[in-house]
Amino acid sequence: xxxxPNIVIMGVSGCGxxxxxxxxxxxxxxxxxxxxxxxxxxxxxxxxxxxxLTDAERAGWLQALAARLAxxxxxxxxxxxxxxxxxxxYRDVLRGGDPALLFVHLYGDYALIAQRxxxxxxxxxxxxxxxxxxxxxxxxxxxxxxLYFDVxxxxxxxxxxxxxxxxxxx
Length: 170
Hints:
Layout: E1 7-10, H1 17-28, E2 31-34, H2 41-48, H3 55-75, E3 79-82, H4 88-97, E4 102-107, H5 110-118, H6 130-136, E5 146-150, H7 155-168
Parallel strand pairs: 1-3, 1-4, 2-3, 4-5
Helix pairs in contact: 1-7, 3-4
């Protein structure tokens, strides 16, 4: 068994969650789980239309992710999940699937994130929802297992930094 917990790479849309989570999973020999793949078709349509999801609309998505984490945990599967996990309540739901989750919060300033979002035209999440993402973001608190990384670093440097923190435990 690996010396690190299962990991959720979290943050606002456009911060690089999927890219970093996929690279980190590969580096750790873990399963990469793309949280966006668990959204209902209805939720994708709403977001693509620039309509922010409510907590009620996110509930089924979060429960599905928690169930996936729980199933993997039961099998002893090592997992890295890319999921916004913007609110404490959302992270609590995910911890229902794996109480030992480690959240890796990718953060950056609005201008950088907005620029990155405009550089991915095929993604369903429009730039118009970035304000709601920043508004909803509740940074993990000291009683939550979390690490914090500035996304100004390159993806390779971020994966190296995250890996180093996992294995030296600081």
